[in-house]
Amino acid sequence: MTDSYDLNELREELLTLGAATLYEASGWDTFLPPQIRPAWPGARIVGRALPVKAAAGDNLPLHLAVERAQPGDVLVVDAGGAPHGYWGEVLAVAAQSRGVLGLVIHGGVRDVDRLEELGFAAFSSLIALQGTLKDDAGTVGDAIRIGTASIEEGDIVIADRDGVAVIPAGIFADTLEYARARALREEQYMNRLRDGELTMDLLGLRLPAEP
Ligand SMILES: O=C([O-])CC(=O)C(=O)O
Ligand SMILES: [Mg+2]
Fold first, then answer.
1. What start-end ranges are recorded for coiled-coil regions in this protein (predicted)?
2. C-alpha 111 – ligand 2 centre gap (Å)
3. Is the Cβ atom of 133 under 6 angstroms away from ligand 1?
4. CA 7 to CA 99: how far, in whole Å?
5. String of b and e for 141-162 (b: at least 16 CB within 10 Å)?
6. What pTM was computed for the model?
7. For ligand 1, what atom is nearest to the CA of residue 132?
8. Atom of ligand 1 nearest to the CA of 94
9. Domain map of the chain by residue range?
10. What's the CA-to-centroid distance between 131 and ligand 1, angstroms?
């Protein structure tokens, strides 16, 4: 479905539409939990998901995922929110050299100053010093669930200051179309609001008048 799309070409447009609009346009619970925030200000991601599941306090699957990743991938990791630094400068340098565009993790990252200097976009539910074991291979490429979102390989990740949306590949074409229409509609709203109209009228929020 998404193979007819060149995400590189769409990158600027998707970032301008933003994670919130794309999530809304998807019509599904495609948002990740709001605790997952950019590790440094200005981090933004558009790319294809490579789902990873990691045991608490073990980052072996992240090393395996870097080996397996294709250029344009974003690692989306369910680490159960455990307070460990699963990812840092070493893995970011390794990932960047393979064309990985970012990391989204329900769990911790560290070395965040270095991640920012590298321009490696990371979104995490926490920042943590504590290191990890490298014993449990977890899974790489199998579907995962984070919050209410299910994530499959090849889904489209859009992450910005508002949060992270992961759009299933099968609905991406429709989602993009609806998102464009929504953005256009809101632009028209903005003009009318600047002219003094109220959202109560614009959005039809008033109760019907009593007879
Ligand atoms: O070493 C680790 O396991 C995580 C980390 O800090 C890095 O990748 O630099
Ligand atoms: Mg480190």
1. none
2. 6
3. no
4. 14
5. beebebeebbbbbbbbbbbbeb
6. 0.95
7. 3
8. 8
9. 2-176
10. 7
Whether 110 is in the pocket of ligand 1, judged by its Cβ within 6 Å, is yes
Q: How far apart are CA 130 and CA 14, in angstroms?
A: 35
The ligand 1 atom nearest the CA atom of 86:
4
Tokens representing 123? 């979104």
The fold for domain 2-176 equals: Glucose Oxidase; domain 1 (3.50.30)
Whether 85 is in the pocket of ligand 1, judged by its Cβ within 6 Å, is yes
Tens digits of pLDDT across the chain (211 residues)? 445 678 999 999 999 999 999 999 999 999 999 999 999 999 999 999 999 999 999 999 999 999 999 999 999 999 999 999 999 999 999 999 999 999 999 999 999 999 999 999 999 999 999 999 999 999 999 999 999 999 999 999 999 999 999 999 999 999 999 999 999 999 999 999 999 999 999 999 998 877 7
